[in-house]
Amino acid sequence: MMPDPTFLLSNLRMNHPLIGVYDAPGDTVFPDIEEFAEHRRTCLFAFFGAWCEGRTLKITVERHGCGGCGHWWFGLENRTREEYIHFLADTEGLRADHARMGEWLDATRPYIPEHDALFTGLLYREFYAYLKTVMFIVNPDQLSILVAAASYHSRPSDPSPVVAEFGSGCMQSLVSFPDLRLPQAMIGSTDLAMRQHLPPDAIIFSVTVPMFERMCSLDENSFLGKSFLKSLWKAREWKGREEGKE
User: Fold this and answer.
1) DSSP 8-class letter at 225
2) Using CA atoms, how far apart are residues 132 and 168, in angstroms rounded to an integer?
3) Distance CA 75, CA 9 (A)
4) Contact 48, 122 (CB under 8 A)
5) Coil, strand or helix: which one is 45?
6) Taking the domains of the chain in order of start, what are their residue ranges?
7) pTM for the whole thing?
8) 35 in Cβ contact with 57 (< 8 Å)
9) CA-closest candidate to residue 64, choices 49, 74, 54, 51
């Protein structure tokens, strides 16, 4: 059963809706489904505006947008290991040398879908059983709130509640979690190739379903009902009024 995020969202003051990543049968009737154009390379996050308007992107082995998404979300091998290392280390300049790039590539495994399609779009209660991760699109103030929310129930002996891993935007939204069954959050959208599709002050904070449920359980007894958050929003409202006078 999908938890109610109303209290959390009301304190976040978000400008963008929550976006879910679903692993579901290809014939699942999500609202307003769109697909990648055939044989056209397109970043997953080029659909950011479509998600916010309520449309759902369907991603499949046949239509996965770009080679990176095809590899990391479906395990497609669209180039050799050596070609991939050369592209990432030399063409993109993402590691100091081939050896380091190869070590990262060998240590990272693609997602293995349970069904024949992955979907990205708004959160729907009727499809909650298929939900794998939830993306919060936030500014730095909202990010600080979410980091505190994700850490609220954690113990020092637990896996880190918030991580930031190197990877593509689509990896950070699904693949980079070591175990989707654990309550964990990922600071993502640090992939330079996909940031052009987001507002300049937007960061994606992705959470697993167990973490989403934990965060939705916070109430006014948590920091969400205390003075620091109230002071933050008061300061932002004052600053906004001052800027409006200029």
Assistant:
1) G
2) 18
3) 34
4) no
5) helix
6) 6-75+110-245
7) 0.92
8) yes
9) 74
Q: How far apart are CA 108 and CA 103, in angstroms?
A: 9
At 49-63, the pLDDT tens digits run 999 999 999 999 999
CB atoms within 10 A of CB 242: 9
Question: How many residues belong to the chain?
Answer: 246
Amino acid at 182: L
Dihedral sign from CA coordinates of 176, 135, 55, 198: negative
Strands across the sheet with 162-163, in order?
33-35, 56-59, 117-122, 19-24, 131-138, 203-208, 185-187, 162-163
Q: 143, 162, 142: which is closest to 152 by C-alpha?
A: 162
Mapped onto helix, strand or coil, the DSSP state of residue 230 is helix
Token pair listed for 94: 């993402």
Bridge partners, residue 127, by sequence: none
Q: For the segment 67-108, what is each residue's pLDDT rounded down to a tens digit?
A: 889 999 999 988 899 999 999 999 999 999 999 999 999 999
Instruction: Please tell me the distance from the alpha carbon of residue 19 to that of residue 16, in angstroms, as a whole number.
Output: 9
CA dist 21 and 245 (Å) reads 42
Give the H or E element holding residue 56: strand 56-59
